[in-house]
């Protein structure tokens, strides 16, 4: 099974169409093409982080300066970023657009991803982070725009879970 | 040397700068000298002041962002050094007040009290300019040359393990955050 270049490109184009200019990212295999495309775009600033929690700070700085930003991370990266989601984004009312590779769910063949897959949605619920799924090309832009609206209106983090059927070729 | 002496020495140069500080003594002491709308005090999320600084730096490329960090905070996010270096941003002056202590969390020693050398870590992480200061004069000179430079700078200031007696001020966290964001957005226009 291969990562879908077509849908990775659509995701990148949607982010760009939504005005996202600053992206922090930490790759995992599903995210390699989209991160590459962002990095090749001179109008977007890609910041390759060493750990996902840095992205919460980077997004906060970009937001304070009036720029739209996003984090592109795997769900284990969400686990690694829990503290600043609470102690920075919630405390200081910072909207975050978190694009999260939803590993370890239906269709994923790697056993090491499965514990993370099981806790991702309960964790988002515990953090009171609204989330939706990016699972098909047709609904992608609408859901990203709606998420951006909610993040901007609430000044809080939102999560977009990138599902297997979007990211991987059939 | 005392941290507040360093802050006083460079306060005039920070008056028009976008400044991000960590929580605890740095935030309290800078406010005691004089709060400004261009100062943001990150009162939690230990380690991320420099990450906020990086987000500001790439969003406001015409500005030089001053980050006032501490040893305990930086030790919690050492990856920020290689991330900043990799980003190519040259417009950050990252000051690390190293008092070898988690002072505002009760005063336990940090790893810099024994062996860790944060300037060395910064240099090895690819930071273009690094220096250390042990006197206020050294600090003032190093800070001024960092502001004049267009290279990413980490400046480690070795300061006494002493700080304020109270950790609260009457500046609301969200008041500070919205005021600061308005200031930054006025620069972006």
Characterise this structure.
The complex is a heterodimer of chains A (170) and B (189). Chain A has 170 residues and is of the alpha/beta class. Chain A has eight helices and six strands, in the order αβαβαβααβαβαβα. Chain A is globular and about 40 Å long. Chain A starts with a helix and ends with a helix. In chain A, 47% of the residues are buried. With 189 residues, chain B is an alpha/beta fold. Chain B is 44% helix and 19% strand. In chain B, helix 1 crosses helix 2 (25-34) and helix 1 (3-14) packs parallel to helix 7 (136-148). The longest helix of chain B is centred in the last third of the chain and has 16 residues, at 173-188. Chain B is globular. Classes of the chains: A alpha/beta (170), B alpha/beta (189). The interface between A and B is medium-sized, with 31 and 36 residues.
Strand content of chain B: 15-25%
Measured as a percent range, the helix fraction of chain A is 40-55%
Total helices of chain A: the number is 8
Shape of chain A: globular
The biggest sheet of chain A, with number of strands, parallel, antiparallel or mixed sense and barrel status, is: 6 strands, parallel
Proportion in β-strands of chain A: 15-25%
- Helix/strand structural class of chain A: alpha/beta
Succession of helices and strands of chain A? HEHEHEHHEHEHEH
Count of individual beta strands of chain B: 8
Order of helices and strands of chain B: HEHEHEHHEEEHEHEH
């Amino acid at each position: 099974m291969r990562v879908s270049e077509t849908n990775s490109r659509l995701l990148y184009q949607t982010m760009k169409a939504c005005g996202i200019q600053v992206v922090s990212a930490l790759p995992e295999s599903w995210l390699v093409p989209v991160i590459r495309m962002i990095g090749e775009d001179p109008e977007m600033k890609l910041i390759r982080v060493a750990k996902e929690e840095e992205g919460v700070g980077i997004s906060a700085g970009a937001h304070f300066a009036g720029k739209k930003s996003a984090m592109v991370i795997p769900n284990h990266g969400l686990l690694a970023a829990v503290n600043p989601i609470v102690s920075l984004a919630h405390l200081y009312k910072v909207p975050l657009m978190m694009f999260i590779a939803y590993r370890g769910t239906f269709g994923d063949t790697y056993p090491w991803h499965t514990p993370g897959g099981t806790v991702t949605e309960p964790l988002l619920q515990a953090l009171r982070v609204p989330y939706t799924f990016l699972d098909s090309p047709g609904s992608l832009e609408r859901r990203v725009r709606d998420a951006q609206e909610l993040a901007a209106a609430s000044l809080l983090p939102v999560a977009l879970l990138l599902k297997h059927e979007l990211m991987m070729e059939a | 040397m005392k941290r507040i002496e360093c802050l006083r020495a460079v306060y005039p140069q920070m008056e028009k700068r976008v400044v991000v500080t960590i929580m605890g003594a740095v935030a309290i002491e800078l406010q005691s000298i004089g709060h400004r709308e261009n100062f943001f005090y990150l009162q939690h999320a230990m380690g991320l002041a420099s990450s906020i600084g990086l987000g500001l730096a790439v969003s406001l490329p015409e500005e030089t962002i001053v980050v006032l960090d501490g040893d305990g905070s930086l030790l919690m996010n050492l990856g920020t050094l290689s991330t900043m270096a990799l980003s190519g941003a040259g417009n950050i002056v990252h000051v690390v007040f190293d008092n070898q202590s988690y002072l505002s969390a009760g005063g336990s020693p940090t790893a810099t009290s024994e062996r860790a050398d944060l300037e060395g870590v910064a240099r090895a992480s690819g930071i273009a300019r690094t220096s250390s200061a042990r006197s206020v004069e050294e600090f003032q000179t190093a800070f001024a040359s960092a502001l004049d430079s267009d290279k990413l700078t980490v400046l480690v200031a070795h300061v006494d393990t002493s700080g304020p007696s109270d950790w609260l001020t009457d500046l609301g966290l969200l008041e500070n955050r919205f005021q600061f964001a308005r200031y930054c957005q006025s620069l972006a226009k």
